[in-house]
Amino acid sequence: MSKLKSKFSRHDVEVCQRQAGYDGFLKVDKLLLKHKLVLGGWSEEMRREIQVKSGAIGILLLDPLRLEVVLVRQFRVGMIDEGQNPWLLELVAGMIEEGESPEDVALRESEEEADCRPQNITKICTYYSSPGTTNEKVHLFCGQVDASKAGGVFGLDAEHEDIEVVVLSVAELYGAVESGLINNAMTIIASFWLEKHLDVTIIQWLGEAR
């Protein structure tokens, strides 16, 4: 068996009990479960909580002609106890609603948060944000925009959004990630991807445009 593949599967977990724990802005389920052990046998029953979320998207908005990216800055409650400014520079992002594809959401959120409509939406990767506590699956994209007129404040009042659009050069993005000024996973992953794929992405996009 490959070292990359576990000998276990979902069938080696027994959920003995599951019930709703909280259903507000966040939804949390309470579980009683057990699972098989590496050295044989079963674990004792254990109590766990899981934050239940629909899928999410993030999209890096890139201007391949100006070598600029369009990011957003907004308040994040998870940072209020962390000793740093809770207004973070991030990718445009949002939750997938029932019946939507990740690409549909990438378009919708780009318009709502940054007043941009990206073209040539390119898949970066799919990953789980924090599988020890949540089932959230994140679909990460890069999309082509014209950053020359990007800017302003956007968002939905009904969702208490107050989102500032920030345009950075690609070099400024890399530097902000390296310095730790940008320290959220979604934006870091997209930045690392861009460093590796910028040249080929520009060739593909501009070639398609011609």
Describe this structure in words.
With 210 residues, the protein is of the alpha+beta class. It has two domains: 10-51, no CATH class; 56-209, Nucleoside Triphosphate Pyrophosphohydrolase (Alpha-Beta Complex), CATH 3.90.79. Helices cover 23% and strands 37% of the residues. The protein has three helices and eleven strands. The protein has helices at 102-114, 170-179, 185-209, and strands at 13-23, 27-35, 46-51, 56-63, 68-75, 87-90, 92-95, 119-128, 137-144, 153-154, 163-169. Strands 4, 5, 6, 7, 8, 9, 10 and 11 form an eight-stranded mixed β-sheet that branches. Strands 1-2-3 form a three-stranded antiparallel β-sheet, with no helix packed on it. Strand 10 and strand 11 form a beta hairpin. It is globular, with a radius of gyration of 20 Å. The chain starts with 12 loop residues before the first strand and ends with a helix. The mean pLDDT is 94.
Number of domains: 2
Shape: globular
Order of helices and strands: EEEEEEEHEEEEHH
The count of strands amounts to: 11
Q: Which residues sit in consecutive blocks of at least 5 with pLDDT less than 50?
A: none
Please give the oligomerization state of what you see: single chain
Biggest beta sheet attributes: 8 strands, mixed
Class by helix and strand content?
A: alpha+beta
Rg measurement, Å:
20 Å
Q: Considering the protein shown, what is the CATH homologous superfamily of the largest domain?
A: Nucleoside Triphosphate Pyrophosphohydrolase
Helix content: 10-25%
Terminal-residue CA separation: 48 Å
Q: Summarize model confidence as the mean pLDDT.
A: 94
CATH architecture tag of the largest domain? Alpha-Beta Complex
Provide the β-strand percentage band.
35-45%
Number of DSSP helices? Answer: 3
Tell me the CATH topology of the largest domain.
Answer: Nucleoside Triphosphate Pyrophosphohydrolase
The top-level CATH class of the largest domain is Alpha Beta
